[in-house]
Amino acid sequence: MKRLSLVAALMIAIPTVASAREEHFTIDPYHTYPHFKINHLGFSTMQGHFGKTSGKLSMDQAAGKGSVEIVIDAASVYTGMQKRDDHLRSIDFLNVMEFPEIIYKSSKVEFHHGGKMATVHGELTIKGVTKSVALEVASINCGIHPMDPTKKKYVCGFDATAKIKRSDFDVTYALPAIGDEMALSFEVEAVRN
Amino acid sequence: MLPNKTNQLNSLSVNELLSNPLFQSGVAPSVVSLLLGLIFYRLAGFWAGIAVVAGFYATAWLVTDLKFFPLTSTRKILLLGLAALGVGLVFDLYRSTPRWLTYLFFTAGFAAAVWLVWPVFMRNKEEWDAWMMAGLSGAYVGWLLVSFVGLRDKGERATTGLLALAGGTGISALLAASALLGQLASAIAAAMAAYLLAGLFSSRLNAGGLLVVPVALLCGMLGVAAQVYAKLPWYVLLILAAIPLVAHVPLPEDRPSWLKVVLLLLCLAPVAGGAIYVTWSQAGDPLF
Fold first, then answer.
1. Closest chain A residue to B69, measured at CA
2. Which H, E and C letters describe chain A, residue by residue?
3. CB-based contact (8 Å) between B24 and chain A?
4. Which of A59, A96, A151, B15 has its CA at 20 to 30 Å from residue B59's CA atom?
5. Hey, is the C-beta of A172 within 8 angstroms of any chain B C-beta?
6. Mutating which of B115, B180, B282 best tests the A interface, going by the most A Cβ atoms within 10 A?
7. Do B72 and A128 touch (CB under 8 A)?
8. Could you tell me which of B288, B187, B275 has the C-alpha nearest to residue B233?
């Protein structure tokens, strides 16, 4: 009878322990790109992205916990035109020689819709200026990578968006001709460690 | 409703004017410099050099809001320009230029440039390129400061030299992918041109420490910033560094001021133009 109770207690406890386990992931730089959109002189919406991103994240959906830390290489800005990219890298905008990294660090993650969506609260640092920015994660999809021959590579993908004002980060050149508000979107894939 | 709408339209057109680069870097510094230049020449010639610095800071206010913190490379330039104005004032009160003061100016210019590029230097200090970059930047600003300080009592030579230096730096910086630095240096050129006119109208063209110390320092720092933080080729700084040497060209000293100014500009324009041409041949047309 005692042995039966012990087994029953273990059976109850094991899933609880398993769901409380925090999983750690490393950002896949080949499938993670921050994109931006900004109004250009009132004529059109210019789009671009950053080509080099690194970072890590952790998730414990059952406990409703998580963290994100993403480092973007500011010099990897790409809009499809070398001269404009040079201008964006210069002291007028991102000043990448002086501030080579754009960093986002989360402070709190709130999962909702059964862990399929989330709101990430955190701090974004651009040009040495740090401001609170909330990311709305519209989808979280996790599973074994279908093309991994070992069938062991566990990947989570995220689609997130945010809005910032560049003037908040001291990127004020050509305001208001070039828009202040920027729409950010992130395609992120991360591999479980 | 109608008066409100008219007010809105007026405020819109004023905002458009204030954010127009030509107004910011051409009209505003010229008007400020010309007016202050004429007033100071009439009332207190000693202070006339302030006109150019005031014209420059009018543009800085329009383009950058003139904030000083958090400290970035652009803000370091703006802070050092104000500090140099104070140094220029003290220098004018101290009339002679002993050798030790020349060394001191060179060291101060060198240190200012190294402070400007310090974040880049510290990140790459293991590489010899970083030491070359810091050394070249320091030597460039130190040289400009010392050479223009030597011209402070020669109004025509100092003012035309600084005009050519600012113009060459401004257009080169603009071509080298920094409209901000290009605008700031072009503002100095516009203010210098207006100051020259004010001096010629008033029949006395002063330079003095109040003019040469801050303006030479600002031009030097803007050139270094365009090289390190934008894409100005380093050898363009070597061409611009020749400007104070060319400003020593022999002139008929007994001729009127305006003629000497014209002759000097004829000699200096090819040097500034050469710097612009070399930058353009590397960078191509500006994006803007």
1. A170
2. CHHHHHHHHHHHHHHHHHHCCCEEEEECHHHCEEEEEEEECCCEEEEEEECCEEEEEEEECCCCEEEEEEEEEHHHEECCCHHHHHHHHCCCCCCCCCCCEEEEEEEEEEEECCCCEEEEEEEEEECCEEEEEEEEEEEEEEEECCCCCCCCCEEEEEEEEEEEEHHHHCCCCCCCCEEEEEEEEEEEEEEEC
3. no
4. A96
5. yes
6. B180
7. yes
8. B275
Q: Which residue has the tokens 């031009």?
A: B219
Q: What is the DSSP letter of B24?
A: I
CA distance A93 to A124: 16
By the CB < 8 Å criterion, does A192 face chain B? Answer: no
Domain ranges, ordered by start, for chain B: 23-283
How many CA atoms, within 13 angstroms, populate the side-chain half-sphere of residue B28? 23
Model confidence, pTM? 0.86
Contact B180 A173 (CB under 8 A): yes
Residue from the list A90, A95, A177 with its beta carbon closest to the beta carbon of B72: A95
Across the interface, whether the CB atoms of B123 and A100 are under 8 A apart is answered: yes
Chain B residues within 8 A of A88 when measuring between CB atoms: none
Residues in chain A with CB shorter than 8 Å from the CB of B19 are: 175-177
pLDDT per residue, tens digit, chain B (288 aa), is 455 655 665 666 787 888 888 999 999 999 999 999 999 888 877 788 899 999 999 999 999 878 888 889 999 999 999 999 999 999 988 877 788 999 999 999 999 999 999 999 999 999 999 999 999 999 999 999 999 999 998 989 999 999 999 999 999 999 987 899 999 999 999 999 999 999 888 878 888 899 999 999 999 999 999 999 998 999 999 999 999 999 999 988 888 889 999 999 999 999 999 999 999 998 877 765
Question: pLDDT tens digits, residue range A32-54?
Answer: 999 999 999 889 999 999 999 99
CB pair distance less than 8 Å for B181 and A91: yes
Nearest CA in chain B to A175: B19
Structural domain containing residue A69: 22-192
CB–CB of A95 and B229 under 8 A? yes
Q: How far is CA A90 from the centre of its chain?
A: 25
- Residue A7 inside a domain? The answer is no
Which residues are registered as beta bridge partners of A142?
A: A156
Query: Among candidates A65, A47, A66, which has minimal Cα distance to A56?
Result: A66
Report yes or no: A92 at the B interface, CB cutoff 8 Å.
yes
Cis peptide before A100 (omega within 30 of 0): no
Q: What is the CATH number of the domain that holds A87?
A: 2.40.128.110
Residue A15 in domain: no
Q: B129 — contact with chain A (CB < 8 Å)?
A: no
Number of domains within chain A: 1
| Residue numbers in A near B169 (CB within 8 A) | none
